[in-house]
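Pinned message: reference record for RNA polymerase sigma-54 factor
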Amino acid sequence: MSMGLQARMVQTQKLAPRMIQSMEILQLPMLALQERIEQEMNENPLLEQQETEPGSPEDGDLAPSADTRSEDEKELVVDDNGDNSDDFERLQNMVAELPSTFDDSFRRSAGRMQEEADRRHDLMANAQSRPESLNDFLLHQLAELDIDDDVERIAERIISTLDARDGGYLRTPLADLLPSDHTAENYEVAERALKVVQSLEPTGIAARSLSECLLMQLRPEFEHYEEMEKLISSHLEDLAANRLPQIQKATGYSIELIQTVRAELQILNPKPGAAFMETYVPNVTPDIILEQDENGEYKITLDDDRVPSLYISEYYRRRLQDRSCTEEEREYIKRKINSAQWLIESIEQRRSTLTKVAEAIVAHQKKFFDEGPEAIEPLKMQQIAEKVGVHVTTVSRAVNDKWMQTPRGIIPLHRLFVGGTQTDDGEDVAWDTIRLKLQELIDGEDKRDPLSDESLVKKLAEEGMTVARRTVTKYRKRMGIPSSRQRKDWSLAKK
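Predicted structure (tokens):
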């Protein structure tokens, strides 16, 4: 072993900061893009936005639009390396085109301040109120009861362990809620506390098993109360597996009676606490609008009216040529110009890329929009990337969390990318089409003798769709379709 200096040539690839920002902007959905622009405008005083409605007569007096700005302004890029004399010369030339009446003071207009106030008001008005949790609901009921303090303390501990996501079941043993040196008397208090909690609404809360949860919901006025109690206590697993003959043999009940009781059991709630589970409903704002013209052709437009038209502040343009501007101020303006120009160009690049990707997707999936989900065709991101002339990761970022408003509703862009297989004739067929065909076969099967997964494979093969049995099993489970044994109707099987 020896130590020494060695020279090596290594080729590495690094992403420039502006390229990273461009990719980040491309990946943002509409609402996130609006937030990003607002954040940038708060941090960068050189960024200004057009404050009047598009198309109003005053537009030309406030700010140059993307179409009317000079070519020099569009290409302005301040480089951190070099003296940037050409860039700043072009920037100073822009000042000559400004109106003679110009207010040197930098302040937000009344319109912009009112716009920001309205935005904050809308956010507050549309903010979702926090719903009452399961624990709060139970504690409010508990507070109204006249019970001993020691029972109430244990009841509160029990309630604290209940989780709405788990249906409100008590998964913690009572002994674990007591001190390690608890006595039999303490355990008796805990059992009394559990009875108190189980007496609260919703009925079935704090049950320790599914059977206990269902039994707590039974009422003597039910028509088949005794039969329901027996099936819950001893034959839940057989009911779930549709093993009705075994239940018939053990209980002496007829198949018809067992099926009637099973139907009545469905009114009971196996997860009483789930009603308090907070559900997240995303606020979907489409980035793309797909419309069909009178000739039947599809037209793509970006729904980016809420994205403001940005430009560099006129005040700071004038400030650059002011002799009183210090070197420190010039460096500050230089950095902010750089940041502002990168953001403007990234937004323009986002518009261009998203439009091209959307047009390529719609062109490939035209049958889907014309005929419906059964006509969707296999599509990979690599195909769109090759068609548009970009890297596949760019396509991935472009479609990520983006939605398209179409004649068939608002759909996520990634929904239009599907895998597939080939028929015996060599025709590509999407997995979604196979799933629809699978559902059709199961809906039309003889319930006395339902199709097994192997039989479904053969039926699909008759349609020219070669699919492995494990694939059929996987999609059947994803679709929530039970096995052939569970789909069998025993009352029809006897006929």
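Pinned by admin. Summary line: Confidence is low (pLDDT under 50) at residues 52-83, 94-108.
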